[in-house]
TrEMBL record:
It comes from Urochloa decumbens. Gene3D superfamilies: 3.40.50.920, 3.40.50.970. Homodimer. This is 1-deoxy-D-xylulose-5-phosphate synthase. It catalyses: D-glyceraldehyde 3-phosphate + pyruvate + H(+) = 1-deoxy-D-xylulose 5-phosphate + CO2. GO terms for biological process: isopentenyl diphosphate biosynthetic process, methylerythritol 4-phosphate pathway; thiamine biosynthetic process.
Amino acid sequence: MSRKCQPCGPGRSVVELTIAIHYVFNAPMDKILWDAGQHAYAHKILTGRRTLFHTIKQKNGLSGFTSRFESEYDPFGAGHGCNSLSAGLGMAVARDINGRKNRIVTVISNWTTMAGQVYEAMGHAGFLDSNMVVILNDSCHSLLPKGDGQPKMSVNGFSSTLSKIQSSKGFRRFREAAKGLAKWFGKGMHEFAAKVDEYARGMIGPHGATLFEELGLYYIGPIDGHNIDDLICVLKEVATLDSTGPVLVHVITGTENDTDGNIRSEITPNEEGPSNSNHDLLKFLETGLSRTYNDCFVEALTAEAENDKRIVVVHGGMGMDRSLRLFQSSFPDRFFDLGIAEQHAVTFSAGLACGGLKPFCIIPSTFLQRAYDQIVEDVDMQKIPVRFAISNAGLVGSEGPTNSGPFDITFMSCLPNMIVMSPSNEDELIDMVATAAMVEDRPICFRYPRGAIVGTSSTLTYGNPLQIGKGEILVEGKEIAFLGYGEVVQRCLIARSLLSNFGIQATVANARFCKPLDIDLIRTLCQQHSFLITVEEGTVGGFGSHVSQFISLDGLLDGRIKWRPIVLPDRYIEHASLAEQLDLAGLTAHHIAATALTLLGRHRDALLLMK
């Protein structure tokens, strides 16, 4: 299969299911909700967006996820997964209160069933007994491969026939009548009949089916997700069931050897990645081509782990970056991939730290948001030394606002015990891995972007621990100073070069730490310059806010210094290329240089620079 086709793989696995859903249900009157954006590609094509599909994930094009702003056929946005059932239940209750008769269909995947919110919603749906259809799209993929002796889910003629019987209106009415008759004979008979029903369905149904029944959902399945006749037959029966409570239809859309349903790959349409073998992965990393910050981070962490047997990795989030396979293959017993169970990942890491290990909890910025309560209560408040590696920080290009990471600087730096840092290049990232491994008395985090590395280093070296809370001046100038935090420092250096064409020599400093701040460095910059510009690829409330808090309390703003922050704008930056997103956000080197020219009163030069 071509790499360029791979992003559509998950969408192809649910084509027949999507066709059957739209054949049976009347969207947009009937609400169809999807948990995963990748599974909604066929849905987009069938709902009037076929001619625009070539623009998906491009600037001003279709979103890679369902979007309320894009089509009336998308009643709810599919973001990080596990939200469709909760939102669908809310819509079902609103429908009942308003006296409407439309149907609610939610499509969840076996990946999103790893998140607790799905089971919370199922339990609530069972309690409310609201009429809705939940379709479990089972690609048969799991975090841990099944052993040879473990049963695998299969669909045969018997299960197909049984599913049709289960979904039929006559069978459901007979079952409800039997329940009513058992109640008439008394509580004891009713409980006995319920146990017999549960036992019988457990015997003929697949493993785990009774779990959904216990939560209050009527289970139907498994059904072959590629047999469109069976799908339509069952969904038609389900659609005619009024006032019978929530129904779960189990649809098998893949096998263990079918990679089309695998949503874990993070290879983008224009990237060429290594094969699955560790040898090919190492060869790919050694070429120095298309190397990312993730590649560099994993290499450094693997090197640290070779010398420190207490280092373990806990990974959370939707999809695992291919570079992590290097650590996983080197130390399989010290690697834990927990999928989108981020809350568990954080507290599990805290437990590992309490047991004397050195956990590196690797979670993309956007998915770390889900685990914030655990970060506060289970880690920071107790000063437990969990090391958070926050990947995909800042803007992420074609993935748009759903998978971008603009908020972590703000929500991590406000925690009293957390050390917060960010590298300006891959060499500093290596040093920060060593720094994090060294810290054992409090939690520490570092963020790094998704994209390619700057390219200052081509060979792996062991990191040197940094002095906590110390930045550096990279280039000295006069009158105006840029204080950058993270990879944006590279753009500050380019901005300095642009300003030199106008006869301006600016100072560029690398903060390295947001918390604790290098207050000596900030004092020096304020005392030796007339203007201080802080630059970060994060929202208001982050690094620049910490700097402004310090310089105002320290009385530095009472003097001659004038301070300006450059942060992401107070809006979501839609999907586009990374360069286009930076331009939309006003965070390119040209924007940084233009800000300096404007501060110096050279407005005409600023306009010329931006042309």
